[in-house]
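Retro notes (design track)

What went well: tokenization of the new backbones is finally stable.
What didn't: we kept losing track of which sequence belonged to which structure.
Fix going forward: every design gets posted as structure first, then sequence, in one message. First example under the new rule, 254 residues:
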């Protein structure tokens, strides 16, 4: 249920609106944009910006251009930790397993790693390394690649630079190209990248423009023909959309 509009807090409301104007698609905001968007004067926009800077919620990246600070990302992480996406998405995982007879997982990014937060396995599962509670590399496998592709460009590049310290530059460049395609197609496919003989597909779980997790389906490649692979891809995209809708419903019901 939507809360009633609080009275006598217009200035506080404006500050919060400015804070919420930062998105993954628009991570930078100028004073002029704020003034135009909220129909306020430039001096008023500067006063609101000054308060947010005082609280270290935003910082000036370059003259007149502002971004969120790490403080906000920490708070976002705290908020997400209370969202049990594994429990929310479990019915979708169970349906996919019933229809495909393959292992289904929900993965989340934890800094430079990927955490499996939920999985449902069929009666005769394939052996895979992704298990609930286990951290895995961020650049190997369909699910991790979906999560890395969803990161802001500067964060991806930062991760690529780290990888160049332990991987040949040619491999990192190939990964860059692959992730560009993943971003375009909005899904990822892998074969024997993490576990020998395992074929996996993954799609991002996107809520209000933000990728909060990835849904992945994995199985033995030798028993999957082209039609079966196409079916898995359809299932993972549909399942990711279903979980996103359930998350949104959960958030709005609180």
């Amino acid at each position: 249920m939507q809360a009633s509009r609080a009275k006598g807090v217009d200035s506080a409301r404006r500050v919060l609106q400015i804070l919420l104007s930062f998105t993954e698609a628009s991570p930078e905001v100028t004073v002029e944009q704020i003034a135009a968007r909220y129909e306020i004067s430039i001096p008023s926009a500067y006063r609101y910006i000054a308060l947010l800077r005082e609280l270290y919620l935003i910082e000036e990246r370059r003259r007149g251009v502002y971004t969120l600070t790490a403080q906000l990302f920490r708070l976002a992480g705290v908020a997400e930790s209370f969202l049990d996406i594994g429990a929310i998405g479990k019915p979708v995982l169970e349906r996919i397993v019933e229809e495909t007879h393959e292992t289904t997982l929900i993965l989340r990014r934890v800094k430079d790693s990927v955490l499996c937060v939920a999985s449902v396995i069929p009666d005769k599962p394939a052996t895979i390394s992704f298990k609930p509670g286990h951290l895995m590399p961020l650049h190997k496998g369909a699910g991790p690649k979906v999560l890395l592709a969803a990161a802001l460009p500067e964060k991806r590049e930062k991760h690529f630079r780290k990888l160049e310290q332990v991987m040949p530059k040619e491999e990192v460049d190939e990964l860059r190209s692959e992730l560009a395609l993943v971003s375009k197609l909005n899904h990822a496919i892998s074969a024997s990248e993490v576990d020998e003989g395992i074929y996996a597909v993954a799609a991002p779980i996107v809520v209000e423009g933000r990728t909060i997790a990835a849904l992945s389906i994995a199985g033995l490649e030798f028993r999957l023909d082209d039609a079966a692979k196409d079916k898995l891809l359809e299932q993972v995209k549909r399942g990711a959309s279903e979980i996103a809708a359930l998350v949104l419903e959960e958030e709005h019901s609180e």
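Added context from the reviewer: Residues 186 and 203 are 6 Å apart (CA to CA).
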